[in-house]
Amino acid sequence: xxxxxxxxxxxxxxxxxxxxxxxxxxxxxxxxxxxxxxxxxxxxxxxxxxxxxxxxxxxxxxxxxxxxxxxxxxxxxxxxxxxxxxxxxxxxxxxxxxxxxxxxxxxxxxxxxxxxxxxxxxxxxxxxxxxxxxxxxxxxxxxxxxxxxxxxxxxxxxxxxxxxxxxxxxxxxxxxxxxxxxxxxxxxxxxxxxxxxxxxxxxxxxxxxxxxxxxxxxxxxxxxxxxxxxxxxxxxxxxxxxxxxxxxxxxxxxxxxxxxxxxxxxxxxxxxxxxxxxxxxxxxxxxxxxxxxxxxxxxxxxxxxxxxxxxxxxxxxxxxxxxxxxxxxxxxxxxxxxxxxxxxxxxxxxxxxxxxxxxxxxxxxxxxxxxxxxxxxxxxxxxxxxxxxxxxxxxxxxxxxxxxxxxxxxxxxxxxxxxxxxxxx
Length: 425
Description:
It is a single chain. The chain has 425 residues and is α/β, with parallel strands linked by helices. The protein has helices spanning 60-73, 91-100, 116-125, 138-145, 150-163, 182-190, 221-238, 255-259, 295-298, 308-314, 332-335, 339-342, 347-354, 364-372, 414-417; strands at 30-34, 77-81, 104-109, 127-133, 167-174, 196-201, 241-244, 278-281, 286-288, 301-302, 375-383, 394-401. The protein has a ten-stranded mixed sheet with strand order 7-6-5-4-3-2-1-8-9-10. Strands 11-12 form a two-stranded antiparallel ribbon. Mean pLDDT is 90; it is low at 1-23.
């Protein structure tokens, strides 16, 4: 921001302050904050199309006001992301402010720029956990991340963060480039001190929307979900927690196992939490109910114009899940027996496919139901994404025989070889 204060500016228009009243108190317990869109990688599945900083990103002094507002709202954890959060000039200052305010500060990173010194500085500033994004074994990871050597750099980041006394975790986007690597990747992560691993599926958001050949088809869940469940059973014995992302699973036989941190409990998906207990902040101060929601549809305001609390409590763009019911669903999801609980699964995933939430073919229960009748759903691209952060194209669903040929598995040859390579001196 150039001249002015963040978070205490003009109020939202009166017409935007008439939201339905509910008996439940929603608050942003878990916030994912993009500090900068600047990045040192070129990931081919990046939803935000990170690389260069946004034109008008929040300065450190503006960010510190946001920290104070989040603490006042009762936020428990802030996950700092980018781009790469450590490329923001005030990264460590913001971490210290969160820590001093009693808010857990964690980091999700590609790890390319983490050094032993930065790891020690993060530990000193109060970072509680570092989750390194590792998307497959070396060949698949480097291809997805767009840089030769990025797998080695991410692995070193895990080691250096562990040596600095930080808790280390990993997160993985699963798609057709890396789905065969999961069991081998588990062994790799276990050997590098990872104590938690989140697995989600790649959604056609941002750059991934430009590469439909990468994407899983809905019937791929028939193989994928049982494999992840088997990994989770093994991980429990080894002392590692494996959890699905918000767009993986839904009411198959392994649902209770997948969703439960404690193997003796039986949790299940309880609907999209965007705008209920989750919030996302973009690097220019745009606030939305989830960090992956499409910017063009779900930004409720910006911290230069109103406080975070005011945006949270008054903007309808953040409140769409708070009173949503079965009537908001369509397609298969409308008649599903789990409709009232699931409410269409992950909102940004469905929106990335069809331009609106409420019908999500990436569902294990749904794939199994079609398979029982010898059928499957295919996602076919219809229109391209415009090329903006958190954008999407459009797809249609084609119903076909379960054993039909699979034309979606071919990858363009250029995608196999086009990697950035480190400069040599």
